[in-house]
Amino acid sequence: MMPRPGSTGIAVDVGPDAALGVTAPALEALGFDTLWLAGGQLDALERVDDVVRATSRSAVGTAVVPLGVHDVPAVVALRARLADRLVLGVGGPQQPRPLAALGRYLDALDAAGIGPGDRLLAALGPRKLDIARERAAGAMTLLTTPAATAAARARLGPDRLLVVHQLAALQPDAAAARAAVREPLAFLAGVPGYRASFRRMGFTDDEVTALADRLVDAVAVWGDAAAIAAHLGEHRAAGADHVVVSLLPTGAGSPLERAGAVARALGLSR
Q: In this prediction, what percent of the chain has a pLDDT beyond 90?
């Protein structure tokens, strides 16, 4: 079985820093007991090994290993190496008939010994959430509101994990914070699954195309560390088991200094 993410309910994305041997243990020392690697960092699955070797106790999650990028034998080998600390998150393809392709991929993982209890599934829409409930230990979401977290919890039921990834800008200036959020959002808003998710949350096509302030402010949080901590708590109150904060590169201080400020606001930092 997959190890559960850490007990605090708050995790952190290790960010784009290539020096994982420095960043990962520093984040662990701040009190984050689960560290996540975003899909863009998983050009090589050995990056997960790097984080495990650099740390002593944190669970390490993949968000996500995308279907079609790393074959099933490579994922099986990763789990065999890191089973006691790996939180395996996998994601379906952005292609025609994606659910059929996802089903075949999950079948292949089953056949290779990585069953439903060994994986989380990236899921936004109702059909993906149903698959996560039926064929995974739970679901991972991104760019959602606390209200959407509550809806996902209702769809998953009480006995599945729900991991919510939250973009955050430790930046009190609205214009600077929104500019930082729009950088990743400019790409993600063009992905069909995210556009559909935004529509379900009540945003118009024009708002999505323009990356309107209302959309930016709903799917990301910005402000001081206390504001970020409070928003993460809203997701927890709405039913998230774990909230992963992805701190964007904006505001004063280094990435680790910003992470430390958030950890202190959350009461994690010792």
A: 79
Q: What is the sign, positive or negative, of the torsion defined by CA atoms of 85, 132, 128, 231?
A: negative
Architecture of the domain delimited by 10-266:
Alpha-Beta Barrel (3.20)
Q: Report pLDDT for 177.
A: 98
Reference 24, options 252, 255, 264, 266; nearest CA is 255
Q: Is 36:56 a contact under the CB 8 Å cutoff?
A: no
Q: Write the pLDDT tens digit of every residue in 128-142.
A: 999 999 999 999 999
Helix (H, G, I), strand (E, B) or coil at 64: coil
Residue with tokens 């001081």: 224
SS3 42: coil
Omega before 90 cis (within 30°)?
Answer: no
Give which of 91, 262, 80, 100 is closest to 169, Cα–Cα. 262
Residues 6+ apart with CB under 8 A from 137: 2, 116, 117, 118, 119, 120, 160, 161
Provide the β-strand partners of residue 91.
66
In terms of residues, how long is the chain?
270
Radius of gyration of the chain (CA): 17
Q: How far is CA 28 from CA 97, 100, 112, 188, in A?
A: 40, 38, 32, 28
Q: Residue 115 carries which DSSP code?
A: -
Helix (H, G, I), strand (E, B) or coil at 239: coil
pTM score, two decimals? 0.95
- Chain segment 168-210, per-residue pLDDT in tens: 999 999 999 999 999 999 999 999 999 999 999 999 999 999 9
Joined tokens for residue 60:
């390490």
Closest CA to 198 of 127, 128, 144, 123: 144
DSSP 244: E
Q: Where are the domains of the chain?
A: 10-266
